[in-house]
Design a protein that fits this description.
- Helix 10 packs parallel to helix 11.
- Helix content is 41%, strand content 16%.
- The chain contains 13 helices and 13 strands.
- The two termini are 32 Å apart.
- It has a single domain, classed as TIM Barrel.
- The model has no long low-confidence stretch (mean pLDDT 94).
- Strands 3-4-7-8-9-10-12-13 form an eight-stranded parallel barrel, surrounded by five helices. A three-stranded antiparallel beta sheet has the order 5-6-11, with no helix packed on it.
- By secondary structure, the chain is of the alpha/beta class.
- The longest helix is centred in the middle third of the chain and has 16 residues.
- Bound molecules: flavin mononucleotide.
- Flavin mononucleotide binds next to strand 4, strand 6, strand 11 and helix 12.
């Protein structure tokens, strides 16, 4: 029903309009008595064989919602009722910011993809902290942190420090996002020295905490093999806990959508099917080259249950979806969990 009736209607509207509609439906619709129960009984797959331990955290299953949808930590509990075992909130920045001018999110259905240049639109870290403080969590929460667009790269460290410090007590793990293609010059912070500098500072801050929470680095799918070797080295030098692979890509190779449409959309990070192969290759490369020592959350173009199983097979312990949820609908999580179950004794 989602693909034949609901999706065609949703796709008549701008992606961002639908995004707001869904967030509001989740926020207010779940107040209808009994709805939460109905959703859970339809979508949740409960089975001990799905339980996954990752970096000391116990996940009910390996499937999470990737960063960028629940940017302000408003609907994480509702998402858990569709079967996600973890939600990554953010990217949050120290100060609220509107992001890039609209329109800034585009579907390319022929390729089962999305191109976005949202630019870290968010209500700021304090808003997210308040949300997290005031609501019990039914789900594991990752906190994805970034820098404000107006902050020059020389001062980026301070922005990451602020978000880290404020979010730390309210999330289960943290993700350092240096790989968003939509923040001017952010990618330059992905060179080994800058990355190590930021991560070292966060690791030092963590050493003063009573509870040790995992810190992961989210990487771009556009890194070369040499740069991936640097990522492995960075993982070793800094002592971070894992890698989230990958963010969206700036490449536009092999698309079915005509060039004119793609050129008209212009800049942005591409997600969905065109990203599947590269993102899985990166997971496989990191896993192989590190001898399986890097804990990996695999994300990027999981559009079918086969894509999900391939990511796990390539070396990811957990997976996340975003674009797949838009194209395949809410039952997608259940389908993936059932497929994972069929591979486990
Ligand atoms: C509209 C949109 C906004 C996103 N915003 C963020 C973000 O704020 N921070 C982040 O780390 N990733 C963000 N992402 C990237 C996703 O978390 C994910 O890494 C990427 O989309 C690849 O997964 P997918 O192919 O399943 O969508 C965003 C993706 C989309 C489509």
């Amino acid at each position: 029903m989602y693909k034949t009736i609901i999706r065609p209607v949703l796709f008549l509207f701008q992606p961002e309009t639908i995004h707001h509609l869904i967030v509001n439906l989740l926020k207010f619709g779940f107040k209808i008595p009994g709805l939460s129960y109905i959703i859970k009984s339809y979508y949740l797959v409960k089975d001990n064989r799905l339980k996954t331990t990752f970096l000391g955290l116990e996940f009910n299953n390996p499937v999470g919602f990737a960063a960028g949808f629940d940017k302000n930590a408003e609907v994480y509990n509702q998402f858990s009722e569709f079967g996600f075992s973890f939600i990554e909130i953010g990217t949050v920045t120290p100060i609220p910011q509107p992001g890039n001018p609209k329109p800034r999110s585009f579907r390319i259905p022929l390729d089962k993809g999305l191109i976005n240049r949202m630019g870290f639109n968010n209500k700021g870290v304090d808003f997210a902290v308040n949300q997290l403080k005031n609501k019990k969590h039914n789900v594991i929460i990752g906190g994805n942190i970034g820098k404000n667009t107006a902050t020059p790269n020389e001062n980026a460290l301070n922005d990451y420090d602020i978000c880290f410090e404020k979010l730390y007590d309210h999330v289960d793990y943290l993700v350092v996002n240096l790989s968003c293609p939509n923040i001017k010059d952010l990618h330059k912070l992905q060179d080994a020295d800058s990355t190590i500098n930021i991560l070292n500072s966060l690791i030092e801050k963590r050493s003063n905490k009573t509870i040790r929470k995992p810190i992961l680095l989210k990487i771009s799918p556009d890194l070369t093999d040499n740069q991936l070797d640097d990522v492995i080295e960075t993982f070793r030098i800094t002592g971070i806990d894992g890698i989230v692979a990958t963010n969206t890509t700036t490449t536009r190779d092999g698309l079915k959508t005509n060039k004119e449409t793609i050129d008209k959309i212009a800049n942005g990070g591409l997600s969905g099917k065109p990203l599947t192969k590269r993102s899985t290759e990166i997971i496989r490369y990191l896993n192989k080259k590190s001898g399986g020592t890097i804990p990996i959350i695999g994300v990027g173009g999981i559009m079918s249950v086969e894509d999900a199983l391939e990511k796990l097979d390539a070396g990811a312990t957990l997976i996340q979806i975003y674009t797949g949820f838009i194209y395949e609908g809410p039952a997608f999580v259940k389908m993936i969990n059932k497929a994972i179950l069929s591979t486990r004794k």
